[in-house]
Specification:
Length: about 450
Amino acid sequence: AEGYKELFQGIDVPVKLADGSFKVPINFDNGATTPPFKYVCETIEEKIGMYGAVHRAGQKSIYSTESYEESKQKVLNFFGLKPEDGYCVIYTKNTTEGLNLLAHELCQKEGTKVLSTRMEHHANDLPWRKMAKVFYIEVDENGLLRLDELEEKLKNAAGSIQYVTLTGASNVTGYINPIHAVAQIVHQYGAKLIVDAAQLVAHYPIKIKGTRADENIDFLVFSAHKIYAPFGVGVVIAKKEYINESWPYVQGGGAVAAVFDDDVYFKDSPDKEEAGTPNYLGVIALSAALDMMTSVGMNQIVRHEQKLKNRMLAGLRGIPKVTLYGDPLYKARLGVISFNIEGMHHSLVNQLLAERGGIAVRNGCFCAQPYVARLLGVSDRERYEMMQQSQRPEPGMVRASLGLYNTEDEIDDFLEMIQEICGLKDSELKRAIRYRLKF
Ligand code: PMP
């Protein structure tokens, strides 16, 4: 079970530590992006001499078009969909672009109402703020969604909320939201559900269809670079009939059926939403990553990562100076663990983990400021005042986010390093801060 490392490329390049020694780094920043599977790299290498523009001319184009279209079937298949289910796949640049596309497409009418949550990444909040009137479901003191508000707000809006948008799993607390149960309530009130699955796809099996038709997810968005393929491809899975109405988000060639001097006829989705030459190699890489995840098995992935997560949470709970965010005993959580160490700025903890332990974590607000502020108990007024000061102690946290190739030894190494950091004397901390200022 500790053997997943050999599936990955580029994770064993040593880094230099502050004491001058070298170490193979530990990467606990999989929430930001993930390294590629070896199989993904091999697939790209094989195809890179053979690609042509998709939907254009020549043998290479035909070959590329075929595998491009096949990749869309593979995506649908990965989420348990068949062609007759009426869903299509639109490739974008990343999750952010996918959510912007949906907000643009779905909120063309002035005054469209959308229900979102206070748990969202900015990518699933700001596009809706631009295009619609957004209402929010709050979180409780543990950062869990107040699901009672979902029904209450939909009911109060008396059918005027058209879309509910929700993260599949939080990139701060790792909470997995009950998307099918949410879908059922959303549909009961005549709305449609968008799921931001950026954090979920690599770590948890997802079926777009629920056990009943009213539990189906209407739209799902994610990024290839968070599922062990490189950057540059996002995926929008959408019910075809829901995105055929407006002018597309991006205008150009490939999206149109006919252009007259004074009129334009667009193709149906997904073609309508894919103007311009697509990122064929990125799509092939994504497709290979899905194959690899299927071959490892999502249940195996969950088992391995849950074991690591439980070990890390249990270890951190035993360290008195550590404050964990989110309920550590809540079962439906991914290996995304945010914390602070008493008396230490989150950026200092990040720095010390990197330079003493070769351990990469992220710190800050993880593009989810409203959620992080709630977990920290910092009001908007306080944050606004901090923003006015030049030397501001920005609120934030340290985040360790796990991936398939991480091991129990790495968790133990990390916990030992956290213990060591908690025990550092003031003089040592001051030295570390000075060291940082030199660079
Ligand atoms: N949503 C969530 C929950 C995320 O974690 C992220 C990436 N941190 C995004 C959206 C945005 O993904 P991308 O940067 O690939 O557009």
